[in-house]
Input
Amino acid sequence: MTDSSVFAALRAAFPSDLDATAIETADGPGAPLRYTWRDLERGTAMIANLLASLELSENSRIAVQTDKSVEALMLYLAVLRAGFVYLPLNTAYQRAEIEYFVGNAEPAVVVCTPKNFAWLSQLAFKAGTKNVFTLGDDRTGSLLERAAQMSDVHESVRKTPEELAAILYTSGTTGRSKGALLTHGNLLSNARTLKDYWGWRKPEDGGDVLIHALPIFHVHGLFVASHGALLNGSKMIWFARFDPKAVIARLREATVFMGVPTLYVRMLAEPTLTREACAHMRLFLAGSAPLLPETFDEWEARTGHRIVERYGMSETVMLTSNPYHAADGERRAGTVGYPLPGVGVRVRNEKGEPCPAGEIGGIEVKGPNVFTGYWRMPEKTREEFTADGWFKTGDVGRFDERGVLSIVGRSKDLIISGGYNVYPAEIEALINEMPGVAESAVVGVPHPDFGEGVIAMVVPKAGAALDGAAIVGELKSRIANFKVPKQVFVLSELPRNTMGKVQKNLLRQQHQGLFAG
Output
């Protein structure tokens, strides 16, 4: 069979000079460290051989919750190389969240940070996982110790486009997380499309250098940024943590930067961000959350560059993008551009009829990048696809007369804070369990740094006194920090319509200026 594995495609794109620099660390232990393409080849081979030695069954899941490091990226590549399924987990997830993911996915292998090994290994072994390794951001841990004993030669496992490559958990509005099943075909088709659409340049054409300052546990940092550089044989300047001043200082050595709107806002606050600092740059990309038109305009005024905003999801990778080439149209603030080549995007009303230009409706998509369904949730999978096979994104938007898409809202009350998805139902369920709480409502309101800030309104039971700060403190010990409300308001009652449904739109309106200035 023809090998359609993601790893095989990425490996084939390595430059002929394997001793050239593939990744240079900009921060973290020992920085700067230089990794060659040969290092990536040998390192992924040794980790793949370690995984192969465990005699795992086909399609075994490898769950990973580690700090960002080049070795963590090698682990991802090694999982694909060995033919298994990669399951990245947000580093902010807490014990209860990890317990659900491990219990639901039943991974054969779990890799975690050394500091979390004691409690996480207990959860994993209880769920039936037989292998737990550690990986630190300082190149320590049992994973590398074991892999160092393995051969640095490995033949990549061949895959068809339909075979599973990764599972990405994306929370549902009911609070129950869903595992989106992404195949080798999904990931590879999207990577190749973006390579052409965004004009990635080969060394013979001047070359590209990517500043990688995103986490690698979600689509943006792992599949869009990492795949983009690797598939092009391009060097990466690797930031384990985003530091606006440090990133700006390295722009003179790079040509491509990818970030969430929060990162752009923070760089705009630095006086060192100038046209001169960005003179060598070719492309700035933004996604994972709405980019405010003010940010778009201020960035252009300061740097001379118009940011390319795009739109994607865990279930679909990238769907649309503002154009890179001027011949394809202009980059327009407040829009996410045109459907990518080979990707179908349509907007339909509640009756299932196509919406004309300017009319708002539900966004539905179809294409080789769209996932195959949710892990062990056949009914939910059927609900999320139309009869003719289009995926219902849950986002609401409109096309203009030029065919440019704008996202105007989210039908499922999703909050995107700092590029991370926050689902109100999950937080509300936790608040409602707390002593003295009768009910709660969680909404997102405009925030100058995070795009949206999470806030909560709580109603006490009769005779109970609630402390908003105490509720925040309790939530911080139970869920990831990006989900924790920035403020909690105690109300006597929540606004409701005649059907008894909480009117969250009124709550958002009442508090829309909360974080202004």
